[in-house]
Write a structure and sequence with these properties.
By secondary structure, the protein is mainly β. The protein has four helices and 43 strands. About 5% of the residues lie in helices and about 55% in strands. The strands form eight sheets. It has a 22-stranded antiparallel beta barrel. A five-stranded mixed beta sheet has the order 3-8-9-6-7. Strands 15-42-41 form a three-stranded antiparallel beta sheet, with no helix packed on it.
Length: about 775
């Protein structure tokens, strides 16, 4: 049974945790200020408190003390950010401010991800861990003007550690429960003092998983589910031949092997399984969905006809394997005190595949197998001329170009008996689908992008007010070859203009107020020539870009002599032409058999409005006690008249509308309300020996699984803590996550054809000790 942290228990507990922090701040006590945070969200270094954009950051100390090692934990501590890995992280999806995308396999995501400003194209590459990163920046709201059309809802930027002119070397290892074992090593320093510096690192982390797999005769490697094996390494070089010229080069590689996440699979079209919306098997046209909170076990779904054992059941399967290589080279030159030129080259080579076997009941001896695979080759060039004088006007002008080749396959197959790990050997390559005879997607896309972008800012009212205008004019040429239809390639061009207008006013030296209006664009795509039995009309063989306008009002405040940071933003989003599933216009829905699914394509037929509030900050109560906090709430809803095509022919106006109407419903797969609060105590025990203790509580509200708002994963809390000692060159940290051993569904796949739900369950309690030594 799921252990539950009730709200009545949490409130006094949280209040009790705050009392010693408040009471320890003596009247009149002199306290140091919170350290300034530098960000590069606008492609230049700035103080976070002076940037008129809602931005959240997590740094290297946060990674260590809050137990952050992946995007799931990053999202736990970031207001307005969600991440779902959907079983194996191959289709990991980031969501900012509730703007979820309909197609999780879409090659273009709603949130753009970057490494040091280099775009990471595919979702199987975006969860890069935190190896050798200085910080992670989450920039909220459309950033299309400076980041491009992919930053539809916002952007996330990994910032790597840079080479230093001082010799640095360190090693660390982590030993934890359930086979957790990490080791890291890094070294860096000057090659030619003040001219050339280099840095190199290697990191590895392993985890066996800690949820029991009850599948009979399962391979010992999957006796527990949720395990992983991840490695990352990189080298970087910083060259400063003159005072005005600098050159940086980075190579970064990540490899990940992810087992299937804990969870289960249940299909509503099998008589052995009971869903609670309509009959067990949809023989009369009634739906066979699940209504309400998805349980953390499939046991409650089993009828008297079922011989399914209790617990999580996953047959042998390879899981997900991905590899990403990133090359970045940049050149900066200062022509004068006012003018500078920056050039950045980026190259991303990535590949990955997920091979899985899915079953509702192992006693049936019949399994659905599936393979997703992708190969992506991306390179980009960006040059910017920046003008930053002492006068009221400043600005920049830039040019961006990129080329991308993207292969992707998604096919189904079947297996009898217990599939073996060797299932992966039935194919000879990532895009080969031998052994998976039912192709759903198999295509190659070639894309070229050219864009001109710029910014103009004007300071007035004695430099207390600034008005800025940003723009980007993009031209994207796309060719698409559907290897399933094996017909002629398709091509289309998309031209768009994305502006951003910002007005900011410095109320006091430490308080900033701003308002902005920004347009976000997300790329269009192709449906191919055929959808099921229908040859698509030319106008529906492709779909257009979607767009949103976001109005944001915010304030940033540094109070109490720099000890208290309070940042807040309120926003409204008008999202038009959302790409959602629709029925081909030349398909006759009157010929549908009861309970069957109509063929669907993607068209620009959805409209969404959303509003929300975000608050975050930190409070240095004394030099020993500090708090950090983050809170967000949002309300993204489909507008009336929006119809979700995949439900046509399945719903019968009893449990859900027969025409697929979802107007007024909340967008699926996102958290409407979340918060994080943490407290930290640190002190010096004696010379060169420091002690710290930290606790963090995070909360996320329920997430709807589907656009009908029938099934949902429940609200969840996570309590984590760490305690440590640090000497002059060493440290030891003990940590624990999910300390109350909560069990809940984190997310769920939903496959309409089989009324199939695939809930993923969170990891249980984990703990460990990390030892680190600096040379």
């Amino acid at each position: 049974m799921r252990a539950v942290l009730s709200k009545s228990w949490l409130a006094p507990c949280a209040l009790g945790a705050l009392i010693p922090f408040w009471s320890s701040s003596a009247a009149g006590q002199q306290v140091s200020a919170i350290e300034e945070v530098t960000v590069t969200a606008r492609r230049r270094e700035e103080n976070l408190q002076e940037v008129p954009i809602s931005i959240a950051t997590l740094n290297a100390e946060d990674f260590e003390r809050r137990g952050i090692a992946d995007l799931e934990r990053v999202s736990n501590f970031t207001a307005g950010l969600d991440f779902e890995d959907l079983s194996t992280t191959f289709n990991g999806v980031l969501t900012i401010r509730g703007l979820t995308q309909a197609d999780v396999q879409n090659r273009v995501q709603n949130v753009a991800v970057f490494l040091d400003g280099v775009f990471i194209p595919r979702n199987y590459s975006i969860d890069m861990g935190i190896a050798d990163f200085e910080r992670v920046e989450v920039v909220k709201g459309p950033q299309s003007a400076l980041y491009g059309q992919n930053a539809f809802a916002g952007a996330l930027n990994y910032v790597t550690r840079k080479p230093s002119n001082e010799l640095e070397a360190g090693i660390s290892t982590t030993v934890g429960t359930d086979g957790r074992f990490d080791y890291k090593a890094s070294i860096g320093g000057p090659i030619v003092p003040d001219k050339v510096a280099a840095r190199a690192f290697f990191a590895s982390t392993e985890f066996d998983g800690n949820r029991d797999n009850s599948f009979p005769t399962v391979n010992s490697e999957l006796a527990k589910t949720g395990g992983f094996d991840r490695e990352a390494w990189g080298v970087s070089l910083a060259i400063d031949p003159t005072e005005d010229l600098d050159l940086d080069v980075l190579y970064y590689e990540v490899e990940r092997h992810e087992q299937i996440r804990p969870g289960y699979t249940v299909s509503g079209n099998r008589r052995q399984i009971s869903h609670n919306c309509g009959p067990a098997v949809p023989t009369t046209g009634n739906p066979s969905f699940y209504c309400g909170e998805l349980p953390d076990s499939a046991d409650s779904f089993q009828t008297a006809l079922s011989t399914r054992p209790s617990g999580d059941l996953f047959p042998n399967q390879p899981g997900s394997d991905t590899r990403s290589e990133i090359i970045r080279a940049s050149l900066g030159y200062d022509f004068s005190q006012d003018f500078s030129l920056d050039y950045v080259f980026g190259r991303v080579d990535a590949e990955g595949q997920e091979i899985a076997a899915i079953t509702d009941d192992p006693t049936a001896g019949f399994f659905t197998t599936q393979k997703e695979g992708g190969i992506n080759d991306f390179k980009s060039h960006e040059v910017r001329l920046v003008y930053e004088p002492d006068g009221p006007f400043s600005g920049e002008l830039g040019f961006y170009s990129a080329e991308q080749t993207d292969y992707f396959v998604f096919s189904l197959g079947f297996a009898v008996g217990n599939p073996a790990y060797e299932l992966v050997d039935t194919t000879t390559g990532i895009t080969d689908t031998t052994g998976f005879p039912i192709p759903l997607r198999n295509f190659v896309v070639n894309e070229t992008t050219d864009a001109i972008f710029g910014r103009l800012s004007y300071d007035f009212l004695d430099d207390r007010a600034t008005l800025s205008a940003e723009f980007r004019q993009s031209s994207v040429d796309v060719s698409f070859f559907d290897r399933v239809a094996n017909l002629v390639p398709q091509a289309n061009s998309f031209d768009n203009f994305t502006p951003r207008i910002t007005a900011e006013y410095r109320v006091t030296e430490d308080s900033l107020a701003y308002v902005s209006a920004a347009k976000g664009i997300k790329a269009g795509g192709f449906n191919g020539f055929v959808a099921g039995p229908v040859t698509l009309l030319p106008a529906e063989q492709t779909y257009d870009e979607e767009e949103n306008w976001t109005l944001e009002i915010g304030t940033k405040n540094t109070l109490m002599d720099g000890r208290l940071l309070v940042n807040a933003a309120a926003y409204f989003v008008d999202w038009k032409q959302m790409q959602i599933t629709a029925i081909p216009s030349n398909f006759d829905t009157g010929n549908l058999q009861p309970g069957t699914v109509a063929p669907t394509i993607f068209l620009n037929v959805g409209d969404v409005t959303s509003w929300g509030i975000e608050v975050d900050g930190s409070f240095l109560i004394t030099d020993q006690f500090s708090l950090n906090y983050a809170f967000s709430t949002s309300d993204p809803q489909f507008e009336n008249g929006t119809k979700w095509g995949q439900f046509v022919g399945v719903c019968d106006d009893v449990f859900c509308p027969a025409d697929g109407e979802v107007g007024g419903n909340t967008l699926p797969r996102q958290t409407r309300t979340q918060f994080a609060i943490g407290g930290q105590y640190e002190t010096t025990i004696r010379d060169s020996l420091d002690f710290f203790a930290r606790a963090d509580l995070t909360y996320q509200s329920k997430r709807y699984v589907d656009a009908l708002n029938l099934a949902y994963s429940p609200e969840r809390y996570n309590l984590s803590a760490s305690v440590g000692l640090q000497g002059e060159r060493w440290s030891v940290t003990a940590w624990g996550k999910n300390l109350t051993d909560e069990t809940y569904v984190t997310s769920s796949l939903f496959i309409i054809q089989f009324r199939r739900y695939g809930p993923a369950v969170n990891d249980g309690r984990t703990a460990g000790v990390t030892f680190a030594f600096d040379f």
